[in-house]
Amino acid sequence: MIDNSRKGIKNKIKIHYGIREYYEYYISCFKTKQLDNNKNPFLVNNKQFSQIIFDYHNMIKEEIINSQYDFEIPYDLGMIGIRKFKPKVGLDINGNLINRLPVNPRATRELWDTNPEAKAKKVLIRYTNKHSNGYVFTIHYFKKYKAKFKNKTLYSFETVRDFKKQLNKKASLGLMDAYLLY
User: Fold this and answer.
1) Is 73 helix (H, G, I), strand (E, B) or coil?
2) CA 90 to chain centre
3) What pairs with residue 91 in β-bridges?
4) Does 105 map to a domain?
5) 91 falls within a domain
6) Domain membership flag for residue 58
7) Domain count, the chain
8) Is residue 24 within 8 Å of 17, Cβ to Cβ?
9) Cβ atoms of 107 and 94 closer than 8 Å
10) In whole angstroms, what is the distance from residue 101 CA to residue 129 CA?
11) What Å distances lie between residue 171 and 53, 87, 127, 130, CA to CA?
């Protein structure tokens, strides 16, 4: 099903599965006539199921950030890990500046509030990442070419904001190192 309801987003595939559907599937697998449902240790309620999933994902996130662990997703669906790269600043063929350093949204917003001319020219304030010698750390999804499903190029991986914040805190303290992203 293709969802074109939001303006500016074309051909976005709508996902119909969430934690509720996974819980219903889980329950359907353990509700059989051979097992007594009252004595089945694997039969948990919805809150317990959600807490188990949350704790499992938290443990994976902590391992990836604290131990620079590359988590291999089961069934050859790829890997998630931390990589670093050094953004480049340069000129294009026409002499225009190409700056790929990350934007500091808070400082940019403060500048635009105090200076309307800078807002009109869309002047951006960028991070220099001196604490990491100019490197930018990212949570990267890789080796998806090994995955055993069709249309791999249509899938993407996005992390939750908390994951990015924890990575940012550790990197800003200078406690982070990772492999280079090519």
Assistant:
1) coil
2) 28
3) 97
4) no
5) no
6) yes
7) 1
8) no
9) no
10) 9
11) 27, 16, 13, 11
- Are the C-beta atoms of residues 154 and 110 closer than 8 Å to each other? no
- Nearest C-alpha neighbor of 157 from the set 81, 85, 55: 81
| Rounded Cα distance, 70 and 57, in Å | 14
- The strand pair at 71-72 and 12-13 is best described as unpaired
User: Which residues, 6 or more positions from 139, have their beta carbon under 8 angstroms from its beta carbon?
Assistant: 64, 80, 81, 82, 159, 163, 164, 167
- CA-to-CA separations, 44 to 24, 25, 26, 123, 138, in angstroms, rounded: 11, 13, 9, 54, 36
Q: Which two tokens stand for residue 162?
A: 């908390």
Torsion sign across C-alpha atoms 160, 166, 171, 177: negative
Q: What are 106's two structure tokens?
A: 């808070």
User: Strand 179-180 relative to strand 12-13: parallel, antiparallel, unpaired?
Assistant: unpaired
Q: What is the pLDDT of residue 5?
A: 53
Helix count and strand count (H, E) for the chain: 5, 8
Nearest to 134 by CA among 97, 168, 102: 102
| Range(s) of the domain holding residue 58 | 2-86+135-180
Segment 95-133, tens digit of pLDDT: 888 888 889 999 999 999 999 999 999 999 998 888 888
Exposure b/e, 117-142, CB count within 10 A at least 16 = b: eeeeeeebbebebeebeebbbbbbbe
Low-confidence ranges of the chain (pLDDT < 70): 1-16, 31-40, 182
